[in-house]
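User: I'll paste a sequence; please echo it back and then give the predicted structure.

Assistant: Echoing your sequence first, then the prediction.
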Amino acid sequence: MARLERLPEPQRSHIAKTKLPRFDTRPWVSGPPLNLRRIAIVSTAGLHRRDDRPFSLESGDHYRIIPGDINANDLIMSHVSTNFDRSGFQQDWNIVFPLDRLREFVDEGKIGSLADYHYSFMGAVDPSDMEPSARKMATLFIKDRVNAVLLVPV
């Protein structure tokens, strides 16, 4: 595990000054059992389809839509942080986007179904800048009948 005191500058000071958002409401809700849930993945690994444009800090776009039937070879990572370790993703995409594992759970009856679409944010962005995108994504979840989201922070 990384320790703040062991990180080099400017990483240490950047992390130390980061303010976490506070919420006035409780975002967690109850719902049906897992075997009746329709699940979507939201990752912060900067993933996108091979034919999509790469992420860029200047572009202002914060996420990509990933079809539920995508194959591992069709997904690439364009995370903008030079300090981001891509080696785990290169060995097994399920580390940052566990779609194969969720497909297995559907086949075993452990979860009800998978969403038609999943999402990947560029994680090297201030979380408060992502809020408009997250609100838009919430409407997409409703259209896709998603009632559970697996958050995969990377």
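The longest strand covers residues 38-43. The radius of gyration is 17 Å.
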